[in-house]
Amino acid sequence: VQLQASGGGLVQAGGFLRLSCAASGSIFSINAMNWYRQAPGKQRELVARIFRDGSTNYADSVKGRFTISRDDDKNMVTLQMNNLKFEDTAVYYCNALYFWGQGTLVTVSS
Questions:
Q1: Please, are residues 77 and 69 in contact by the beta-carbon 8 Å criterion?
Q2: How far is residue 81's CA from residue 59's CA, in Å, rounded to a whole number?
Q3: Between β-strands 90-96 and 99-100, what pairing exists: parallel, antiparallel or unpaired?
Q4: N- or C-end of the chain: fewer Cβ atoms within 10 A?
Q5: Which 3 state secondary structure label does DSSP give 90?
């Protein structure tokens, strides 16, 4: 499975972005689909996870602001990011099992 992330960009604090992750193959059999991020000088961290049953997990820092969703028919995972903060600036990666997307840069100006 190849993963292609898109949707990053430059946004002002308080703004929103919607990231998409398109999979080249079926994600139906993949239980957990994830979004990670890596800020400059920091370790990669899990931002959000969604399971096949629709249950989700979020990092405490994004709870209430980010929403992860998946469409197994379209082999797509999205991350809606609202009320963005400067500290959300990072490269965001889509992940499933040991497959990683190329990353999309999100820059939030204060």
A1: yes
A2: 13
A3: antiparallel
A4: C
A5: strand
